[in-house]
Design the sequence.
């Protein structure tokens, strides 16, 4: 791997780590709050599509280091978990509203 390719991968890894650092906190808050308030389904879907596009780019670019792809997969998994929690929380809120 040339120096410039290494630097490109290092910058992409840094970006993915920084973006990915927020998702565990978001998942925890979604799990414990049992509320979908403050969440945007459209935002979550756009983020998932962006990460999938990043994975596609890595697969088409044969020079991409495997660790970059792994970070994309980890991030898209975390956003997907948060999206599933969004639907769970929506159902819980609907159930609570029906009881009242």
Sequence:
């Amino acid at each position: 791997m040339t120096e410039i390719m290494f630097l490109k991968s290092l910058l992409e890894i840094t970006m993915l780590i920084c973006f990915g650092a927020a998702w565990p906190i978001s998942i925890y808050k979604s799990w414990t709050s049992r509320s979908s308030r403050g969440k945007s389904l459209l935002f979550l879907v756009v983020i998932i599509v962006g990460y999938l596009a990043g994975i596609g780019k890595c697969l088409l670019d044969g020079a991409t280091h495997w660790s970059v792809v792994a970070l994309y997969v980890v991030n898209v998994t975390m956003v997907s978990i948060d999206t599933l929690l969004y639907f769970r929380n929506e159902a819980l809120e609907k159930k609570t509203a029906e009881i009242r």
